[in-house]
């Protein structure tokens, strides 16, 4: 199999998951299933959080994440979920960020019903800053918790901390506000996953803010890795931009972390 | 060489975006770029304008790679009795404001079944209960459920398990290995390649088609074999 003519296995998936989810069926949410799909598509590395941690139990889910990282060294990197309602979250996060393979913190303002610019997340950003790690947050256009305006508000408070805007607004109508926020905030990076995203919108994103500010993400195993990857592989992008999105942006962000 | 048929595509401009398929040349160029041999196309005038005259532009489609799919509406304010003429049609009951369970719809569905005409029906146009009733009624046409999304797998599985006249397209069947799961459980003959483009993405489903973890014969059915069978009116 040749993913649109590529031979290198160097793709980095910035936004993935293992586990299962409440609202719908994931027939196989195992790390083994994800790694097998990565092998099938030429994806070298996936940066994942555990869906149990995103959902009801960050403590248990983050523990499962560490087991998966240990089982698949080099193939899976970890986002530790920060649960803003857990009084022990700050110290737990600091410990998690010291574990090899954990590259940063995952915030999900939608699930936790806490706006991204709420001060409840300050310890998470500070822990990321102190250990030179990344932050990935779910975004959703029009949401009271994770609209582009929340990213534009919080990012300048933590200069130097790379903040990935998961889904780049999620809906097509959210793309322009996401790009405007990225234009204003130098530490914002737009990540590409979502079932509403199209190759056409991806091309606009890259043309608007530059491939260096865009990172490929799939949302596997929530979504199928192939639909997100195919969107980048088959988009009408210049080859240099395609490579930048597929791995260049994350290569730069992960330098010094792994 | 496997024939690739996109069973779910729109020709014409969209009200909410600028799309290359606003005209026939743009759509054909997109198909060529993505190595799609044939596309079953509704016209955007029929979906987003008035379906009573919105199908007219389909009569001017010249490229043989584009297979016209009229959008039908039942009743006295609809598109008229169905006398055949296209193997595949689309119904948009919610968007066009009519009831799938009413007597007008019942008459139209019986006409479609009598002519062997298959139906595209988008998941956001109906409830799963309506689909159950449609498929259980007799006579019922074959229905391809489009845009089912990754969240509907449990409901979709129940429908496919209960009604052999139901099929599904791949446009947003985008949960992890969902296409393989559906094909493995209900048979590859129930799954048709469709993108929903340009409203939904074409590149992702196209790449998924190239990387299916299925026997080659099953992948060929999904890519185009099943669609060609429907378009030929074969059972």
TrEMBL record, chain B:
Gene Ontology molecular function: hydrolase activity
Highest taxon in the source lineage: Bacteria
Gene3D superfamilies assigned to the protein according to its UniProt record, in alphabetical order: Metal-dependent hydrolases
A Pfam family hit: Amidohydro_2
Transmembrane portions of the chain: none
Amidohydrolase-related domain span: 89-232
Cross-referenced InterPro entries: Amidohydro-rel, Metal_Hydrolase
Name of protein: Amidohydrolase-related domain-containing protein
């Amino acid at each position: 199999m040749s993913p649109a003519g590529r031979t290198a296995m160097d793709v980095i998936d910035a936004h993935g998951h293992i586990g299962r989810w409440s609202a719908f069926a994931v027939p196989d949410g195992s790390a083994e299933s994800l790694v097998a799909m990565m092998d099938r598509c030429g994806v070298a590395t996936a940066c994942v959080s555990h869906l149990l941690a995103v959902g009801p139990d960050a403590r248990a889910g983050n523990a499962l994440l560490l087991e998966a990282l240990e089982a698949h060294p080099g193939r899976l990197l970890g986002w530790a979920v920060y649960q803003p309602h857990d009084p022990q979250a700050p110290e737990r996060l600091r410990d998690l960020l010291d574990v090899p393979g954990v590259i940063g913190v995952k915030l999900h303002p939608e699930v936790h019903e806490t706006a991204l610019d709420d001060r409840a997340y300050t310890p998470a950003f500070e822990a990321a800053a102190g250990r030179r790690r990344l932050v990935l947050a779910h975004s959703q256009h029009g949401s009271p918790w994770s609209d582009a305006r929340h990213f534009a508000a919080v990012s300048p408070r933590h200069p130097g901390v790379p903040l990935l805007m998961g889904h780049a607004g999620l809906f097509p109508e959210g793309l322009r506000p996401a790009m405007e926020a990225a234009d204003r905030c130098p530490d914002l990076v737009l990540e590409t996953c979502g079932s509403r995203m199209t190759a056409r919108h991806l091309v606009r994103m890259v043309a608007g803010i530059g491939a260096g500010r865009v990172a490929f993400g799939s949302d596997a195993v929530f979504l199928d890795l192939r639909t997100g990857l195919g969107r980048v592989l088959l988009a009408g992008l210049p080859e240099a931009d395609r490579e930048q999105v597929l791995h260049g942006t994350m290569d730069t962000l992960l330098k010094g972390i792994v | 060489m496997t024939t690739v048929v996109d069973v779910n595509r729109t020709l014409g401009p969209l009200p909410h975006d600028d799309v290359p398929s606003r005209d026939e040349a743009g759509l054909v160029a997109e198909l060529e770029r993505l190595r799609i041999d044939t596309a079953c196309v509704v016209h955007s005038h029929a979906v987003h304008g008035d379906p009573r005259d919105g199908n007219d532009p389909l009569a001017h489609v010249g490229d043989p790679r584009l297979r016209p799919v009229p959008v039908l509406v039942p009743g006295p304010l609809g598109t008229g009795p169905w006398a055949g003429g296209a193997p595949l049609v689309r119904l948009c009951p919610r968007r066009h404001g009519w009831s799938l369970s009413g007597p007008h719809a019942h008459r139209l569905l019986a006409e479609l079944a009598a002519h062997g005409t298959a139906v595209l029906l988008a998941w956001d146009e109906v409830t799963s209960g309506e689909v159950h009733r449609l498929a259980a009624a007799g006579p019922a046409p074959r229905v391809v459920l489009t845009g089912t999304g990754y969240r509907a797998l449990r409901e979709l599985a129940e429908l496919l398990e209960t009604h052999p006249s139901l099929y599904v397209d791949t446009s947003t069947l985008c949960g992890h290995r969902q296409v393989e799961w559906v094909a493995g459980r209900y048979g590859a003959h129930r799954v048709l390649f469709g993108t929903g483009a340009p409203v939904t993405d074409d590149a992702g489903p196209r790449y998924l088609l190239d990387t299916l973890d299925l026997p080659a014969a099953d992948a060929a059915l999904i890519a185009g074999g099943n669609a060609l069978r429907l378009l030929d009116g074969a059972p």
